[in-house]
């Protein structure tokens, strides 16, 4: 007969037996970690991995350690099923139940559809310290039922995709589960005194810093972490301040590192949203903002009917919006590869719909935008050569503002271009209007269209008449505009 008791957060097994020989709990059994993930991370030794010698058979997995007729796989399936399981056979084979794979959010009804994943894989354990363990310690880890973080029910294909990867090379596709996944990863590593290599440690630390404090590891070993959180972990995110200074100065602040080249999906950046609640989504907002003339807008659903756009990338002028794409100057995939993989969904939403800085989103010729695709300046520049310096300056400002990195190739190319442009292109504090492409405009001035919708409130610009205009929700006499939206008016 066995009893499980918790003493100050440490799981202890008390074994009582009527036989003359008592079962012994291996000395390698570890207490469950209860510290917040970043505190736990600080306890982990950073060291190179031990390469060589691994064999899966060195970890005696799927054993029936408690001699109840059910091996570890069956125990986890029964433990994590959302409904009572059905069993068959003397070896306690689980045939059906209901399991939610936390990694991808998929639900399964047959035991044959899921696998039991070691959160920190057996090979990862071997490479980060398990090579020095005894056979008993490796068996304890491989069959650890005391910590629900260690073993998880996962979709077979997703478990195969994960393989032996650590978080520097794999994260669950279910974004809302990633902070919990990382917290549990740290908890397991601390519990079993496992190390991290430099790449793994740096990536985990950066990711956890972007997680909410509530993503801390549960303090109870009986609290399940096998189901995703109800919502995406977020931190309080506001609009970032616009950067100032020369392009060369901003470039010097950018980190140069290899890109994170996996896991990207466009859906991870909720885009074309109506974040300000004015019934106009981001695409329509940019079309309104960047039109050279006052646009016609269908009031039902805020759809732009007509306008006049000059694409800064190629100098082409369009009056049919079907010829226009809204381009993220730094593409969503490029942002992901350069650091946005570690952002919360809220941060990616703000980036994908950023109207606070006109350098982030531009109305451009659709075919040119498709030619650009996800390329950085080492592989693509606008066909209009006279716009290259502006484009590079804008690229640098967006990367600096959102703290995105550059890889070596990109950085080298951008640095040469900035230097060829003089390196002194100033990044101003307010750029809320369309980038100027009018040849009659004074250098550095952005023309606005009187009466056109605008953002943000309080921004200033000039019209071709050289009159000064203010982005406001009221007329010069103080009368509120009927639709409540901001327009360019004299002031």
Give a structural overview.
By secondary structure, the protein is α+β, with helices and mostly antiparallel strands. The model is unreliable at 1-29, 214-238 and 424-445 (pLDDT under 50). The chain contains 14 helices and 18 strands. 25% of the residues lie in helices and 15% in strands. It has two domains: 31-215, no CATH class; 245-442, no CATH class. The protein has helices at 37-42, 72-80, 122-127, 135-142, 156-162, 178-191, 198-209, 247-252, 282-290, 332-337, 345-352, 366-372, 388-401, 408-420, and strands at residues 2-7, 10-15, 86-88, 93-100, 107-110, 114-118, 151-155, 245-246, 296-298, 303-306, 309-310, 317-318, 324-328, 361-365, 426-427, 460-462, 468-472, 487-490.
Set down the secondary structure blueprint.
Layout: E1 2-7, E2 10-15, H1 37-42, H2 72-80, E3 86-88, E4 93-100, E5 107-110, E6 114-118, H3 122-127, H4 135-142, E7 151-155, H5 156-162, H6 178-191, H7 198-209, E8 245-246, H8 247-252, H9 282-290, E9 296-298, E10 303-306, E11 309-310, E12 317-318, E13 324-328, H10 332-337, H11 345-352, E14 361-365, H12 366-372, H13 388-401, H14 408-420, E15 426-427, E16 460-462, E17 468-472, E18 487-490
Antiparallel strand pairs: 1-2, 3-4, 4-5, 6-7, 8-15, 9-10, 11-12, 13-14, 16-17, 17-18
Keywords:
491 residues, disordered N terminus, 25% helix, 3-stranded antiparallel beta sheet, 14 helices, elongated, alpha+beta
Averaging pLDDT over every residue, what do you get? 79
Which structural category fits the helices and strands? alpha+beta
Note the gap between the termini. Answer: 84 Å
Share of helix, binned: 25-40%
Largest sheet: 3 strands, antiparallel
Strand order of the largest sheet: 3-4-5
Please report which band the strand proportion falls in: under 5%, 5-15%, 15-25%, 25-35%, 35-45% or over 45%.
15-25%
Per the principal axes of the C-alpha atoms, what is the gross shape? elongated
Query: How many independent structural domains?
Result: 2
Uncertain segments are 1-29, 214-238, 424-445
The DSSP helix count reads 14
Radius of gyration, CA atoms, in whole angstroms: 29 Å
**Total beta strands:** 18
């Amino acid at each position: 007969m066995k009893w499980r008791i918790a003493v100050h957060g440490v799981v202890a097994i008390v074994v009582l037996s009527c036989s003359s020989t008592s079962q012994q709990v291996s000395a390698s059994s570890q207490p469950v970690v209860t510290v917040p993930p970043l505190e736990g991370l600080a306890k982990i030794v950073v060291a190179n991995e031990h390469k060589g010698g691994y064999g899966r058979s060195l970890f005696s997995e799927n054993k029936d350690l408690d001699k109840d007729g059910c091996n570890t796989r069956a125990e986890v399936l029964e433990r994590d099923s959302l409904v009572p399981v059905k069993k068959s056979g003397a070896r306690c084979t689980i045939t059906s139940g209901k399991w939610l794979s936390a990694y991808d959010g998929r639900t399964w009804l047959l035991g044959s559809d899921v696998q039991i994943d070691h959160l920190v894989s057996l090979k990862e354990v071997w490479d980060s310290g398990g090579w020095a363990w005894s056979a008993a310690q490796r068996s304890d880890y491989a069959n650890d039922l005391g910590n629900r973080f260690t073993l998880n029910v996962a979709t077979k294909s997703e478990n195969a995709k994960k393989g032996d990867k650590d978080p520097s090379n794999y994260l669950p596709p279910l974004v809302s589960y990633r902070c919990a996944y990382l917290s549990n990863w740290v908890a397991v590593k601390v519990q079993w005194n496992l190390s991290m290599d430099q790449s793994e440690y740096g990536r985990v630390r950066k990711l956890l810093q972007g997680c909410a404090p509530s993503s801390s590891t549960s303090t109870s070993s009986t609290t399940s972490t096998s189901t995703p959180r109800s919502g995406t972990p977020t931190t309080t995110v506001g609009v970032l301040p616009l950067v100032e200074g020369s392009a060369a100065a901003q470039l010097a602040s950018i980190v140069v590192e290899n890109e994170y080249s996996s896991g990207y999906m466009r859906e991870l950046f909720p885009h074309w949203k109506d974040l300000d609640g004015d019934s106009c989504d981001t695409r329509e907002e940019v079309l309104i903002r960047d039109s050279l003339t006052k646009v016609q807008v269908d009031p039902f659903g805020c759809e732009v009917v007509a306008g006049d756009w000059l694409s800064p990338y190629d100098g082409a002028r369009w009056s049919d919006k079907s010829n226009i794409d809204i381009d993220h100057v730094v593409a969503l995939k490029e942002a992901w590869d350069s650091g946005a993989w570690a952002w919360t969904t809220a941060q990616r939403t703000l980036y994908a719909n950023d109207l606070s800085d006109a350098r982030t989103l531009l109305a451009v010729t659709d075919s040119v935008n498709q030619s650009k695709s996800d390329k950085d300046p080492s592989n693509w520049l606008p066909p209009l050569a006279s716009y290259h310096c502006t484009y590079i300056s804008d690229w640098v400002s967006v990367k600096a503002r959102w703290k995105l990195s550059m890889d070596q190739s990109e950085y080298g190319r951008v640095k040469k271009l900035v230097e060829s442009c003089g390196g002194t292109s100033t990044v101003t504090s307010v750029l809320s209007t369309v980038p100027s492409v009018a040849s009659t405009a004074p250098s550095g001035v952005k023309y606005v269209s009187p009466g056109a919708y605008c953002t943000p409130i309080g921004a200033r610009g000039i019209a071709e008449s050289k009159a000064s205009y203010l982005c406001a929700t009221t007329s010069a006499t103080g009368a509120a505009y009927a639709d409540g939206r901001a327009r360019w008016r004299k002031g």
